Amino acid sequence: MSRPVNDRFLRACRREPVDATPVWFMRQAGRYMPEYRKLREKHTLLELCKTPELATAVTLQPMRLGVDAAILFADILLPLEPMGAPFEFAKGEGPIVHEPIATRAQIDRLRVIDPDESLPYVLAAIRLVKPELRVPLIGFAGAPFTLASYLIEGGKSVNFAKTKKLMYGEPEAFAALMGKLAEVVRRYLLAQIAAGVDAVQLFDSWVGELSPDDYRQHVQPHVAHILRDVSEPGVPVIHFGVGTSALLEPMRDAGGTVIGVDYCTSLADAWSRVGSDRALQGNMDPCALLATREVAVKHAQRVLDAAGGRPGHIFNLGHGILPETPVDHVQAVVEHVHASSAR
Amino acid sequence: MSRPVNDRFLRACRREPVDATPVWFMRQAGRYMPEYRKLREKHTLLELCKTPELATAVTLQPMRLGVDAAILFADILLPLEPMGAPFEFAKGEGPIVHEPIATRAQIDRLRVIDPDESLPYVLAAIRLVKPELRVPLIGFAGAPFTLASYLIEGGKSVNFAKTKKLMYGEPEAFAALMGKLAEVVRRYLLAQIAAGVDAVQLFDSWVGELSPDDYRQHVQPHVAHILRDVSEPGVPVIHFGVGTSALLEPMRDAGGTVIGVDYCTSLADAWSRVGSDRALQGNMDPCALLATREVAVKHAQRVLDAAGGRPGHIFNLGHGILPETPVDHVQAVVEHVHASSAR
């Protein structure tokens, strides 16, 4: 594996000194970019994910913004299809799982896949994009609770009522589902590392819907099962969820070299709670990119001020870039973060 | 004004000793009750709100469950129509504001209404229901940020992008909108108190989308403007929002005799942060009512354990009752809370 030329991001993950704060954006390859929308005119989202050449092209698109890391273009739901739960992306409605999980029998039928056999296109994309990059490549997966919620709700949810009804009412069935998902995610992240990614992010996007007690009981052991092994190869692991202000301590305890902080949490407060032995990633509000360049830059500076120049800060948003975001506002934030934080 | 026979709820608001922990539920009058669904077959939601006899009937429906407070049946959006922003409830889609607010000129045209003239049916319902009750009556209003988000987004929102774009990009226009809404809400709650409610709740349902810094800058002064005056008549004020784990301190500083805690926050942690000079309301996960009676009761006991028998705990959910909730699970929780907490 060739060493990336710009290693600011990896140094920050390890809380080593950096020449400037590294910056990348969740969903930095996506609908806000005209070149992405152009590709989407000809291809579905799943075609982009399943065609290594296209996934590579999309992964590279935001490199022109000067970000300090690339994130592989893929979708957290990709493992569900080979597990036996096919889904589609309906126009404007997000993912739809064709047969949502409602019974123990359905859970028992889910397959614990081998990613080399079942998700070869993801690993091929990693091998294809790596030589093109002068920054580290981040791989990723959805975390078990987030994947379970899509399987049970059949798509996006407002209140996660079906997921929690199973979790509270049939904790053994829920644990069996979480255990299968955790093993798949563990294998999937290890396969991505073997294929060459320099870091991985675990997206527990919807886990913020749980109380700390529920997290410790129903989620933490499964995430720990994943992150214990994945951290072994010395590859930084970013552990992120939205609305997780109340979960920072148990998420840290579940694992992660870097804790991703959402936009509703004070970064300074998060650091004092997470502790100085972890790096933090975040946490500008994605909506602060929408108004003007000046507003975007002002909010970026606020995040830098909250981080206070501590080693181990990776600048990012506190959630994904919104599709209506002007590209030049994103560009302005990258330039500002680098200039303002230059040591 | 006649004194309510059962004053457990009001005593708990004042952190006085009680014979048992008081319990009521957000949305305790609503779609989970068969008698409510029957009324809705004949009347729209707005008809129920605008006809004092019907609002009274709905307010009284959950009294058969033995709850320790009634909450007036109404909707937080009612003030918007007389302010000049009419809306409707579209089938299964929630509220739709016909002309969402996008410009300063629209904000300047909004009327700061007199509730006695513009919302007489709400005040008439309060006067009608009061003599029927043997428990205290809670009035309520939506808080300025939550109302502003409906006005700007035109309905419910996922990411509050338009609201925040205005807030970040045109802070003076946003403050003008918040100021008008705050003055309307202040007058509206004072009018409800004059009409006879025993307590009020301010629902800042969506404010949990903001960071503590944003809350302090853009919301806190407006909520404080409301709650300074509303607290004067000695009527308890419950201050509640969802996803507000990171906002407990600034929400407390904005005001409220009782701080409502959502289902994602640890109640014990919330109390140590809010301080012992406030009562707390909450915070069972509404989804824990869905599975079985036993699961519901177990989760209710967890909340009682977290409160630890401290004076000033009002048992409630951490968000509204879901429409699919079995009534007998709710009933079982009421009975358990009273029996388990009896002094």
What would you note in describing this structure?
The structure is a homodimer of 343-residue chains. The first copy, chain A, has 343 residues and is α/β, with parallel strands linked by helices. The first copy, chain A, contains 17 helices and 9 strands. The first copy, chain A, has helices spanning 8-13, 34-42, 45-50, 52-60, 80-83, 104-109, 115-118, 120-129, 144-153, 161-169, 171-195, 212-218, 220-230, 248-254, 267-274, 293-307, 327-341; strands at residues 70-71, 87-90, 94-97, 137-142, 199-203, 237-240, 258-260, 279-284, 313-317. In chain A, strand 8, helix 16 (293-307) and strand 9 form a beta-alpha-beta unit. Chain A is globular and about 55 Å long. At the A-B interface, helix 10, helix 12 and helix 16 of A face helix 10, helix 12 and helix 16 of B.
**Biggest pleated-sheet summary of chain A:** 7 strands, parallel
The CATH class assignment of chain A is: Alpha Beta
Number of helices of chain A: 17
- How large is the radius of gyration of chain A? 19 Å
**Residues in helix, % of chain A:** 40-55%
Protein chain pair with the most extensive contact, residues per chain:
A-B, 36 and 36 residues
Annotated CATH architecture of chain A: Alpha-Beta Barrel
Number of strands of chain A: 9
Q: Please indicate the percent range of residues of chain A in DSSP E strands (runs of 2 or more).
A: 5-15%
Quaternary structure state of the chains depicted: homodimer
- What is the 3D form of chain A? globular
CATH topology of chain A: TIM Barrel
How many individual domains of chain A? 1
The span between the termini of chain A is 29 Å
Question: Would you tell me the overall average pLDDT of chain A?
Answer: 96
Strand adjacency order, main sheet of chain A: 1-4-5-6-7-8-9
Low-confidence stretches of chain A: none
Order of helices and strands of chain A: HHHHEHEEHHHEHHHEHHEHEHEHEH
Helix vs. strand class of chain A: alpha/beta
